[in-house]
Model the fold of this input.
Amino acid sequence: MIKRLTLLALLAAPMAQAQSLTVELNKLEDVETGCQAFFLFQNGLEQNLTGFEMSLAILSPDSIIDRLLTIDAAPLPAQRTTLKLFEIPGTQCAAIGEVLLHDIPACTPQNGEELDCFSFLDLNSRASAPLVK
Done:
């Protein structure tokens, strides 16, 4: 009986790890009023996220905090990739050295309790500036 439970636990572990939330800073593009950030959110969870906010620190190329920015990316449908655009006003894209995710004020599944998204969040960047935790 114990061997059977251990085997079931081992088989279930990869399925639990497969559920994740990936945030990609896909590109930065200068616009008239600042820098437009293109984010891709890949919700690999089984639940829609009706609340998802990220608090970001925008750092200069020499690692000085330029500004703090909170973005609301909700809703994020389950098992889908969603494109969201956010403007960083008054900043040229070349002035962004790094985007630091320092907090997630909201990560709420539909009809559920708040989640700790940091535990299953993956970040990456294809832009000139890295997106880091």
